[in-house]
Amino acid sequence: MPKAKGAESAVDDIQKLPFEEALQRLETIVESMEAQDLPLETLLTRYQEGAKLAQLCQTRLNEAELRIQQLEKNSAGEMTLKPAPTQLEEA
């Protein structure tokens, strides 16, 4: 079944959100679901959006963690990114 244009637009909009805004939207969704007696369809829609936001936040956190792990000091004492290890180097 093809996605509706509105659904694709919503997914695109979520992917473009900065981490802090995505987290705030997720918190707002959780609070509204806990505090209000909402119809099932509304709950499902908010749950789906919340799941996408949670996945986005986790992805962004994983990317930030990887960048932090890649930081190293060069000979001048400045912080620089080192290349990520390849799978062969990790084994």
Task: Kindly describe this structure.
There is one protein chain. By secondary structure, this protein is mainly alpha-helical. The protein has a single domain, classed as Helix Hairpins. A hairpin with a 5-residue loop joins β1 and β2.
**In what range is the share of β-strand residues?**
5-15%
Instruction: Extract low-pLDDT stretches.
Output: none
Structural class by helix and strand composition: mainly alpha
For the termini, the CA-CA separation is 42 Å
Strands side by side in the biggest sheet: 1-2
Number of helices: 4
CATH architecture: Orthogonal Bundle
Q: What is the helix fraction of residues, given as a range?
A: 55-70%
**CATH structural class:** Mainly Alpha
Per the principal axes of the C-alpha atoms, what is the gross shape? elongated
If you consult CATH, what is the topology?
Helix Hairpins
Tell me how many strands there are: 2
Largest beta-sheet details: 2 strands, antiparallel
Task: Give the ordered list of helices and strands.
Answer: HHHEEH
CATH H-level homologous superfamily name: Exonuclease VII, small subunit
**Kindly state the mean pLDDT as a whole number?**
82
